[in-house]
Structures
1.
Amino acid sequence: MPAKAACAGGGEIMIYYSPVMAEENKSSLDALSALAKRRGFIYHSSEIYGGMPGFWDYGPLGCELKQNVKAAWWQFTVRGREDVAGLDATIIMHPKIWKASGHLDTFADPMTMCKDCKKLMRADQIKDIYAEQRKKPQPKVPGSDFFCPHCGGELTEPKPFNLMFKTIVGPIDDPSNVAYLRPETAQAIFAQFLNVLATSRQAVPFGIAQMGKSFRNEVTPRNYIFRSREFEQMELEFFIRPDEAVELLHGHVVTLADNPDLNGPVQDDWGWEVWHKYWVEQRKKFLNAVGLPTERFVEYWQKPDELAHYARACVDIEYDFPFGRQELEGIAARSDFDLTQHQKHSGVPQTVFDDPLKQAAKKLDDAAKAAFIAKVQADWVARGKDALAAEKFCRDLFDGKYVPHVIEPSAGVDRLMLALLCEAYEEQTLKDEKGKDDVRTVLHFSPKVAPVKAAIFPLIKKDEAQMKFARDLFEKLRRKVNVQWDVSGAIGRRYRRQDEAGTPWCITVDAQTVEDGTFTVRERDSMAQTRMTYEQFLAMMYAALEF
Ligand code: GAP
């Protein structure tokens, strides 16, 4: 059934809108990127010089959207919790950090080159490029199944290509001065772990969050802002006790089999797998809150043979982008790998002192301690680890010392922005008052991330009283949220401009406003208009913006 909505002129238009149509109209990347360019969301970097592959700029609406996405993440992850502290570290750090983290030796993609057309590409993406092509070229070497997807030419043997951007620090261009632009924000969190612990009045379990630029010299940046060479990440390293410490402290470890309540307050006796699942659920809640419905993304639990050697579990949250289902963000249980690596490479112990743990251990007699060690040794040996190391680890636990383990929810700002744009974009076919088809392009952003929260329209420009009221309202509101002022064209055209920007509310000041102070608020998705006072509008707006 068509929905009804009041139109600006006071009559009614019919909206022929159904879920099926919304599905059909889901953005193609071309239509979306055209709108994003036209309305000032996203531009090619350095466009007047022909652009730079893998680099994108955000225009007036794009940078507002980006700020809102980041602010929402910070509110949800840091300020809204008592157990997470923030960090803002440098992009260039000591190169030894990247040796310790493994990025210097292993952060590489397999690169191949076509011997004929000289195009470079990632060997592991060639199948995807074949799949995307309507007409794939025939191999120039008959019978070959590994050939250039662009011209059919012969490809070179794939070689690892390190993705870190190199730079020189200081005036002397010497290998000893080589440094790297960070390929992830996470490592600075590990490198500053002890400082934050000492200055934040936090104790394990607690998290450190950081957001900011990361750089990867991607061989083939693809799919608009999905895979870029310069992008932003929002990462949380949430430090937890090793399960053995939880066991010692509480006499048990809560696992998923115990069916813990992941929606209630966090619990001190949770083991790593509960913490991991808890953060998967938190991330899904966040994605819902900023406008991605649960049914639009899937959890992909990496299989044991897909996991990095130090990881105990890793979940990718995948979204159905117009170019296929792809990773939006990941939540990894990384054991104590990172802090242990930095301890080894820096020589600075990364252990914490956990007094409740030491007090719990004091209560054990020698027999109980020996039984505890034997149990941990059996578990470690079954996981291919060393029995002597297990004993040393247990004796440190008895002293209240351990290297914390970590759960890492890691998200890309730009990738989330792309998902939000894809999710928000819709072309609706409406009927105008004469019954003619009229296409409305609208971005259904959640008010929490919408670049502009409200637009103010005086109905009649020549009416001084209306103009004054509208201008005063605009000045009052702009001190609170991002609002736009628009006096040009018919009200219907002004609505459409704001629909394309994703503005949730349009406020029209008319003759009645001057008499009684109420104005019409037109809601973007339903197009319904309601008369409200300023106070009523503020209450409604703040309720929609709150997390
Ligand atoms: N610290 C863990 C880490 O960096 P990752 O899976 O390599 O893990 C995390 O990256 C997130 O960062 C990804 O899920 C994605 O959202 C974003 N990301 C990674 N590479 C990106 C790129 N080249 N362009 C845009 N976003 C990227």
2.
Amino acid sequence: MSKFKFLVSLATSALLFISCGEAEHSHDDMSHEKANEQAQIHSKEANIESALVILYPTEGSEANGQVTFTKMEDGRIKVNAEVYNLAPGKHGFHVHEFGDCSSPDGKSAGGHFFTDHDNHGALEDNMTHVGDLGNLEANAEGIAKVTFITDKLSLSGMNSIIGRGVIVHDGEDDTKTQPTGGAGARVACGVIGISK
Ligand code: CU
Ligand code: ZN
């Protein structure tokens, strides 16, 4: 090896050594930035104030409507639902596991959304599925309008309903039959999204 070649290879090794060190340094910076970014995303999640669902009819149904979920000052959630073209009477009303209404029968939304308690029951009972919201009651014109406040649901954290599904059923939820309340077919389906 000539002296020149030796010097060049020495210089290259030195450069490689330095740039490796730099690469590692900038990698550290990047993961730090990433962590910051994630923290920001999480704090944004925690600040979600309201969510909206547009309910679309499943196959053979004409039921449609919308549901809003609004965070109150005390952290509880105000639910406001308006659903049209229902058969008069009671209709099971739940948050389901998946925000997926792609199947014509709405079954792609999965079962009732739950975290700690895998037990179907009433809205008032906190030891039941998070998604158990009881019934909507449609009048003679097939219109159901209901407003209630619950501490069961959340727009952030473990019980967050963001991105999950809402289902309105053909029949009444008896709040006892496992695991669905026996509410029958799914007549409307929607996905819970973040709203202003
Ligand atoms: Cu349901
Ligand atoms: Zn349930």
3.
Amino acid sequence: MEQFTYIQESPASMTESERQYFFMEQAKEKRLRKEEEVGHPLTFCVTTFGCQMNARDSEKLEGILEQIGYQKTEKEEEADFVIYNTCTVRENANQRVYGRLGYLGSIKKKKPHMMIALCGCMMQEPHVVEKLKKSYRFVNLIFGTHNIFKFGELLCRAMDSDRMIIDIWKDTTQIVENLPVDRKYSFKSGVNIMFGCNNFCSYCIVPYVRGRERSRNPEDILNEIRQLVQDGVVEVMLLGQNVNSYGKNLEHPITFAQLLTQIEEIEGLKRIRFMTSHPKDLSDELIQVMASSKKICNHLHLPLQSGSSRILKEMNRRYTKENYLDLVERIRNAVPDISLTTDIIVGFPGETEEDFQETLDVVRKVGYDSAFTFIYSKRTGTPAAAMDNQIPEDVVKDRFDRLLTLVQDISGKMSGRWEGTTQEVLVEGVNEQDPHLVSGRMTNNVLVHFPGDASMIGQFQKVHLDECKGFYYMGTPV
Ligand code: 5AD
Ligand code: SF4
């Protein structure tokens, strides 16, 4: 039997992506042998925590698993291979992973051939890996954010081993192109344009777990989108921690605005979205491109974090309240009916009631269509974690509730401003509650439900917006 468990090394002349396909082929043989042993086809279930970047990474994991021949299942308890793609931006995401992992351990006791893999941002933290090694010995494979392209190769090793395989890289400059991807939607797709972050906002762990900023070559991005369009995609979401600094470190630097102009020219592509934009890097060139574009959606996510210039300085955001409001004004002058959304953190160390009032003031002045509000979470290793005057829980909770009330009041009014108009909606799916309805999104990203059926999925439909229900509309197709 020995020769069957041997992993053949790849020929030295191969590119990294060829190497990975080479290992996927070997993993395929191992899967077939395992299926013979257990007597049924092997299934997998990938669970994603966190942001759109992670969601896109999970599509890559699924692409590799399907290439190896695993079958997808939504039922985690029944899967032969469970993968958690984790997030660590706030502590509660970590706690959820540990909780669910405990439960998985009890299932694995009854089903020893079951495999469990953990990857994503949480794995880049040494204290997490230590804890897993100590208390969650039943996990088969642990890898990080920098070597996700090696999943096929690592899986090959894990399939042969009864020990925990751990492969975490501190950082990388490598970007491996052309690996398999299994897209969740046939008609829209995320597209990574850059990885990592160089901003080091003082509360944020992302630069430590996602590494330094690296942009993909424009040609690779354009080719990927052209291919997606050929496969039926009409909407892309360009992904990066800070898309406004795209291209600065390329051998032939180009700006994000220039990249957008090139993407705009791709025939058959109908909508372009992007996230996230850092206010400090949002250029007038970009505002102009947004104003003149026919494809860039009428929506901008512009994280505020705090409305207090003093706190923004402590957060290392490198803009002031006034800079932010001025930027919003310039954007609104160029694109008058744009939807603005944001992220806000409450309870950053040293935040006073006056600072908090400044945040409320910006929320009132800008009039966001929606806002994600977060309670500050202390992340080990970040500068803010070592700051004095962390805010007591009850004070933070009280501020959070007041912010949420204001945000809901304003965003309810703001998103209601389209009532009675007719808008183009890209249909995303049949409504989960009512099978006679379909659900889709307008250019401003707001959801609309209206009568229809599955044949409309992926199609654009003009819809009269009959009634705004807070965060979504009920409509009638016209
Ligand atoms: N605590 C709370 N919220 C955070 N975010 C990032 N780090 C933290 C933290 N330590 C929020 C920011 C960011 C969003 C993705 O998560 O608002 O924009
Ligand atoms: Fe975190 Fe700031 Fe980078 Fe966003 S820009 S990922 S908040 S460090």
